Each structure stands twice: as C-alpha cells, then as structure tokens.
TrEMBL record:
Pfam families hit by this protein: polyprenyl_synt
PROSITE patterns: POLYPRENYL_SYNTHASE_1 (PS00723), POLYPRENYL_SYNTHASE_2 (PS00444)
Gene Ontology biological process terms, A to Z: terpenoid biosynthetic process
Family: Belongs to the FPP/GGPP synthase family.
The protein's name: Polyprenyl synthetase
Gene Ontology CC annotations of this record: cytoplasm
Cofactor section: Mg(2+)
InterPro entries assigned: Isoprenoid_synthase_dom_sf, Polyprenyl_synt, Polyprenyl_synt_CS, Prenyl_diphosphate_synthase
Length: 301
C-alpha cells in the first residue's frame, strides 16, 4: 500500500513545528487583560485545542509562493480566530446547543451565554486587527487583500450564510447539489480562503490562483464529507465534540444522502480533484499542500 504524504516524517515534523508556532503567536495576540474576564473566555476558546488546519493551509500556501513569512503568520492566526469565533457561536443554545468542543466544555457552558457571545465578537474583531497592524509591518495593498478574502469567506456569502442555510435545513431532505452548495459556504469558504490568503502573501499568476482556488474548494468539500462520516463512525472522545449530533438533530448530511460507503468514495474523489489542481498550479513546492489534503482525507480511514 502506498504511504500517504501525511504519514511522512518530514510532513509530521513540519506540521508540529507550525502548530507550535501558531499557538505561540496566538498566545501573544489574544489578550488576557480584556475587561471583566473576557480575555479568559477568549483564550479558552482559541488556545490549547484544534488541529490548526486553516493556519497550516495559509502557511503552506505562502511557502509555496515564496510569500512573506510575517504576513503569513498574521493571516494564519486571523483565519484561526474567525474559525474559533464561529465555533463559540455555533455551539450556543440558539444554534447547535452543544456542550463539548475540542474535548472540553464549550465556552457558553464554561463562562455563560453572554460572555460566550462577547468572546466570539471580540475574536472576530481581533482577526481583522491582526491584518491591519499599526506598525507598518504589512503593506497596505496586502492588508486590504487579506481583509477582503477573510471578510467574504466569513460573511453572508460564506460561513455565516452557510450556517443560516444549515439551521433552516433541519428536517429537510436536500439533494446533493443543495447540500454541496450549503457546505461550500458553511465549511468550504473559510478553508478556501485560508489557501487564497496564503497565496496573497506572495506573487502568483492568475492561472496559479485559479488552481489554488480549485484546490481549496475541493479540500473544503472533502473536509465536510469526512466530518459527516466521522459523526457516524467515531465516538465523542475521539472527535472532541458530541458524536451523532447531526443524526440526532435530523440534519441533512452526505452520509444520510449517500450512505457511508458512497460518502467515503465521494470524499476520495473530491480529494483527487484537490491533488489534480495542485499538479496544474505551475508551483514547484506543493508537497506540503498535497500532504495536508491527505491528512484531511485519512481522518475517516
């Protein structure tokens, strides 16, 4: 059997080093001294948990295009802050009403609903603050490009819009096209933006950006299919969140639509499309991006 790139020692060492670097940067940027305990709730939501896939995509793409490392780390942390804020809000009783995230109580369980809402708001604001530093360390054009990519992926045309569709689809039998469209917004938009923000830290051709966008879109869709599979096949301790929640809430998923085996086969096909896009990107150093796609896919195997 062929060894996945995600199994190689080089990739594992790179991933662990970058995860540690992101953790260190986030710890420095997420304030503890925000008033009335808000900083504690913010740091609880962000630090000491998660695989940091989105930051890793930013950093790997930036490296592939010879991007600016300082800009890449700011972009990596910004996208992780948006992801963390979305989890805080999604877990609240008014939405998914979940009590477990990353293996620990959700923020509203730990700190109360009002503090969780404010922590999410503050994390979202901090994400954009990182992309417009006052010390001149980011060129204005790059700051604008990064802010626009992140805002579009997080707003009504992206993650927030997809979550609205998700909430409206409980008990509704969506077809494959509608399910894909929802998840391209809810999950895929921020993952694709992570790739494109990495690309924005360097110089790329329009053709290369198009293939990177295709890679990011395919990876985002595959991630959600695998997530649906794991919701059925893994336990809560493994997931770090409540297993079986989608079925219990009567949410449409790729597994409920296709069945488990077909959903796995579909995830594999979509990941093949991500790899193909990288092969057509005209970039020479894409091994880490290939490995990240394998890492996403192997979660369900």
């Amino acid at each position: 059997m062929n060894t996945l790139l995600s199994d190689t020692l080089g990739f594992v060492a790179w991933r662990e080093a970058q995860q540690a670097a992101v953790e260190h940067a986030l710890s420095g940027w997420v304030p503890l001294d925000a008033p009335a305990g808000l900083g504690e709730a913010m740091r609880y939501a962000v630090l000491d948990g998660g695989k940091r896939l989105r930051p890793l995509l930013v950093l790997a793409t930036s490296a592939a295009v010879n991007g600016a490392p300082g800009a890449a780390m700011r972009a990596a942390c910004a996208v992780e802050l948006i992801h963390a804020y979305s989890l805080v809000h999604d877990d609240m009783p008014c939405m998914d009403n979940d009590v477990l995230r990353r293996g620990k109580p959700t923020v509203h369980v730990k700190f109360g609903e009002a503090q969780a809402l404010l922590a999410g708001d503050a994390l979202q604001a901090l994400a954009f603050e990182l992309l417009v530093p006052g010390d001149g360390s980011l060129e204005a054009d790059m700051s604008v490009a990064l802010c626009r990519l992140l805002a579009l992926s997080a707003g009504a045309a992206g993650m927030a819009g997809g979550q609205a569709v998700d909430l409206a689809s409980v008990g509704v039998a969506l077809d494959q096209a509608a399910l894909e469209a929802m998840h391209r917004q809810k999950t895929g938009a921020l993952l694709q933006a992570s790739v494109m923000m990495g690309a924005a830290t360097g110089q790329t051709s329009e053709a290369t950006r198009a293939q990177l966008a295709r890679y990011g879109a395919s990876l985002g869709l595959a991630f959600q299919v695998v997530d649906d599979i794991l919701d059925v096949t893994a336990d809560s301790a493994t997931l770090g969140k409540t297993a079986g929640k989608d079925a219990a809430c009567d949410k449409p998923t790729f597994v409920s639509l296709m069945g488990l085996d077909q959903a796995q086969a579909y995830a594999d096909r979509v990941l093949d499309q991500a790899h193909e896009a990288l092969r057509h990107s005209d970039l020479t150093h894409t091994d880490t991006l290939h490995a990240l796609a394998d890492w996403v896919g192997r979660r369900a195997h």
